[in-house]
Amino acid sequence: xxxxxxxxxxxxxxxxxxxxxxxxxxxxxxxxxxxxxxxxxxxxxxxxxxxxxxxxxxxxxxxxxxxxxxxxxxxxxxxxxxxxxxxxxxxxxxxxxxxxxxxxxxxxxxxxxxxxxxxxxxxxxxxxxxxxxxxxxxxxxxxxxxxxxxxxxxxxxxxxxxxxxxxxxxxxxxxxxxxxxxxxxxxxxxxxxxxxxxxxxxxxxxxxxxxxxxxxxxxxxxxxxxxxxxxxxxxxxxxxxxxxxxxxxxxxxxxxxxxxxxxxxxxxxxxxxxxxxxxxxxxxxxxxxxxxxxxxxxxxxx
Amino acid sequence: xxxxxxxxxxxxxxxxxxxxxxxxxxxxxxxxxxxxxxxxxxxxxxxxxxxxxxxxxxxxxxxxxxxxxxxxxxxxxxxxxxxxxxxxxxxxxxxxxxxxxxxxxxxxxxxxxxxxxxxxxxxxxxxxxxxxxxxxxxxxxxxxxxxxxxxxxxxxxxxxxxxxxxxxxxxxxxxxxxxxxxxxxxxxxxxxxxxxxxxxxxxxxxxxxxxxxx
Lengths: 302, 214
Fold this sequence. Notes:
The structure holds 2 protein chains of 2 kinds.
Chain A: H1 4-15, H2 19-32, H3 41-51, H4 63-81, H5 96-117, H6 121-152, H7 157-160, H8 166-183, H9 202-205, H10 211-236, H11 244-268, H12 277-301
Helix pairs in contact in A: 2-11, 3-10, 4-5, 4-10, 5-6, 6-8, 6-12, 8-10, 8-12, 10-11
Chain B: H1 2-21, H2 25-46, H3 53-81, H4 93-111, H5 118-121, H6 125-142, H7 146-164, H8 173-201
Helix pairs in contact in B: 1-2, 1-4, 1-6, 2-3, 2-7, 3-8, 4-6, 6-7, 7-8
């Protein structure tokens, strides 16, 4: 394996994800009848932030800078484990799905750690919320992955994405979509544009970051959105069996559709009352749990 | 036909969870009504393609009764009692959702060990029936408003009806009709009781019914 191939994957995961928030914002703008920011807005923002200085609290330890970096690297590594349709991934190995789940958890831990560094009670509140919702969201993701493992009989991500049949696929897709919204702090759970202190979840954790670390956090969020969108598409469509070009085309189309769906959800649905969030997360978890049950039954009755 | 059967069963179980997770009485009543319609369609699918006038009549009667008439009575009772929300259930919405999911899974697991006829062994018919019955129990136990409890009772009855469909080929239609009539009468009676509770206590909280007065 040459150095070229991993470099391609890395470039893909660095360059493409910031497009997705642009698409979401464009959809929201169109639905609201506005012009909206340019599609590449996040790229401009990232370039601008990268050139800026960092404002450091005197209280913060070096962890304040380390945490976002580790979170970004962990998210990027988790993303590199995800197979890209027919192209597969660089280095598939048994159990990489577990590594992916843990890397995402590590990223979350680091974001929480970075948030607590400045000693702001406000960010501590956001962290507490984020982490307590994560408990429910992570169960859902693990259940979804377990369903795929059960269905395909493999614990390698490359072989795992064999779409389920009929109703199972629908249930799992709805469940994963709900989890996608929760994990990426999109609308019914958290409003990424809000700056109303009492209701913020994710945004409040990253308030004190500035300059390059803030750019890393924004970029990491985009990667995470892309990661979940790709997982969702591969759950629905059997892209891994198609020839390379066609499968990539399907994947791109699917990711675009998911992104537009997120944008539409954001335009059409108001965010949930705060105390109802766990209920929706539980529903998302159940949507993932029932396909697991049905797959398990199907296997045992064969 | 088997696929449609499983789709309907799946929707029925989904409505179960909706009934457990919602705090709004209109949604709860709608869920029960939807279940009634879906369950009403089942005999047609189970007997496909040997339809006769009895089956058609049973289907129509079940859909009309469970899907429209009983929800209409409940809606009216709800409007006269002037409530639309279950305020403080004994068992919260998330715990009852999780309990319901556990009950469904347990139903599936338990059914695998039941001595069923071979034609029923692989399907979701029996697990769904048990899941409906258990959901009915959870609603009956966990909610305090009389109307929610009636909905629990109706879901419980739906489960029994689904169980009874196993014997569709051997029970006389008369039995089914009699059961349907019974439910409608009982919902009538409950509607009246709800009104009386509302008038006597100014609320539908059944916890207030524990103290006896002369």
